[in-house]
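hiii so um. not sure if this is the right channel but i have a protein structure encoded as tokens and i wanna go backwards to a sequence. like what aa goes where. can anyone help
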């Protein structure tokens, strides 16, 4: 009975660990780049809106900027995606190998456990549990490190866009600049996206 309980528990935990390695799976499929773009773009747009929308109601001269359009056209976008992909590719592959090995051991328990010697079965069960814990730790560290690096790169791009907006706003005399995606409708605000894009490049 103990043998089957261990197998069931380990099998169910494998399914849970797959969620922890979502980034490793994303690194291996075609839309990984699109995933990074959306996350960086969403965070950048939100940051720009917060930085430049304060006091908009009291301002006399308002401009709008499409952060999403700027982000999509920045050469740095492709460089960041490639950098993150290369930086985490080896660790993602390692996690996939660990998961495959762990699944193989669990399948062996399920297939041969009833006919194995007690000592051999106990050894394999302990090995499964040890591999499971190691996998969980590495998967968690992977996700945390990826999130941290993604944030670092996002902040770099966001800083460049903010600096460019400040320069353009200063030259053209705007009191407030807000992200076009953060407002539902604007009549008086001039769109300075093209000028900002030219500046940030």
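sure thing!! here u go:
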């Amino acid at each position: 009975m103990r043998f089957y309980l261990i197998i069931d528990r380990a099998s169910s935990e494998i399914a849970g660990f797959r969620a922890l390695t979502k980034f490793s799976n994303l690194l291996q499929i075609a839309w990984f780049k699109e995933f990074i773009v959306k996350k960086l773009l969403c965070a950048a747009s939100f940051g720009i809106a917060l930085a430049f929308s304060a006091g908009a109601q009291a301002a006399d001269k308002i401009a709008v900027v499409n952060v999403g359009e700027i982000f999509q056209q920045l050469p740095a976008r492709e460089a960041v995606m490639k950098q993150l992909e290369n930086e985490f590719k080896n660790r993602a592959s390692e996690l996939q190998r660990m998961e495959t090995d762990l699944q193989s051991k669990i399948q062996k328990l399920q297939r041969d456990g009833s006919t194995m010697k007690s000592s051999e079965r106990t050894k394999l069960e302990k090995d499964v549990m040890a591999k499971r814990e190691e996998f969980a730790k590495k998967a968690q560290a992977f996700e945390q490190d990826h999130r941290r690096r993604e944030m670092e790169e996002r902040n770099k791009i966001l800083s460049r866009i903010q600096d460019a907006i400040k320069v353009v706003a200063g030259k053209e005399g705007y009191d407030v600049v807000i992200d076009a995606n953060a407002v539902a409708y604007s009549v008086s605000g001039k769109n300075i996206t093209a000028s900002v894009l030219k500046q940030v490049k």
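oh and The two ends are 66 Å apart (CA to CA).
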